[in-house]
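Bench notes, afternoon.
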Amino acid sequence: MAAVRLDFSLFDKFDFEYKPVGVKFTLKKPDDIDPLNKELAICEMFKEAQTSEPFYATKATTQCGEHVVGYEEFPPLMYSGQLGPHFSMFKNALANRKVYDYIRILPKDSVKYIIHASYDKMTFDPDLMIFTANARQAEILMRASSFASGDMWSMKGSTCLACAWLYSYPYMTGEVNFSISGLGFSMKARNVLPEGLILISVPANQLPILIDNLNEMEWEPEWFKLGREGFIDAVKKLDEDIIADYGMTDRWK
């Protein structure tokens, strides 16, 4: 693989319980990474990579989610929405059918190999990185994602095909997306992760921005350490200082 251009050592400072994982989609077989030695669903692969050596998955080792990454096309039975009601995902086939109008999937046969590696073992620049974070870590990451741009955070997902919102959607749109473990139906059924963790998927175009912002911004602002009353008093003092600085009678005039 090509040399890594970005410095991911910054993520050491988070002390993640679950390591961030880089994902790369490719048509070319990796020559320095071993194949996955078991069958896993797409939604299980990033969890596997948190504690394993780097690996690549193929159609043969993808047990579920193969339609999302372009290994297969959705069959008529899925497109028709017939499966959802049987799983108690949707009230009826019509509700299930709607998912296929907005889900983003990779084009058929555009990918043959999906490489996964924890951030400290990557030998490649990833197409996206998936973070498994607690609320404190996620607040820092999400604040960093919009620190310089002011972009709105957006969470997109669905009860089924949860892997698409972590893999194909951010990869194809270039948008950061996040979810919470326990919301995705199959991930919950497979016990992929404990419930309540925040899953953040950052595509390649956003990674340099994220790292730059993390290097620049204050991770734990003093405002978080003041307590409720201290925070209220400090905000009032800031208001007074700003009003005086701008020569206003109050901040609304």
